[in-house]
Design a protein that fits this description.
Length: 233
Amino acid sequence: MKVIRSSLLEGARSARGTAVVVDVFRAFSCTPLLFSLGVRHSVLVAAPEEALRLKSQDEELILIGEVGGVPVEGFDLGNSPSQILRRGAEFFKGKAVVQRTSAGVQGALAALEAADEVLLGSFMVARATAGYLKARAPEEVSLIAMGVQLKEKAPEDEWCTRYLAHLLDGTEYDHNLALREIIFQETTQKFLRRDKAHFPAEDPILCLQRDIYDFVLKVTRQENLVVVNKEEI
């Protein structure tokens, strides 16, 4: 199994084999949390207008996401795991959600055009994802760190792909160093300043939890939709 680490939109567009699209802050930390609270599936869309159109056809859908980090008018929630957790399972159980984000979702949609298979990655599902990959042993695995708005690398995503590589092939990984480089950088500090409501300080705490779910998140096309389903390990 050849493991390739790459970054940003270019990395997603050049994905080969099985792609793991990583967005730790916050899209693909939200997704496993949503499944743990009982959602049936998630639909990934490129634009807010598409999400709103889907809800006009099915008012039971829950819309989650952001543009430039800011929640979208007409959506039910922003791209925030702490907001999701606060709502609780009673809000989500048995429902379908639609996610639109500026980095992770866009990367997953791009990777789906290039790779044989697409999984969603974060620290929360890293060990389960690695177990899935080792069991199936594809010839190539593309670990793609989506970064900030697809424009610059983000330490949390880079370290998560490094952790996945460590689990797959023994690549060196130091979690203390990872935390030091993540926590004291702007991608985390913008939450800890507590000066913007759409960047809750609780979000990094949730996003940096490792290996807490024992399922993988698999992206497939179903008719004219891109759907994420949970697959137990």
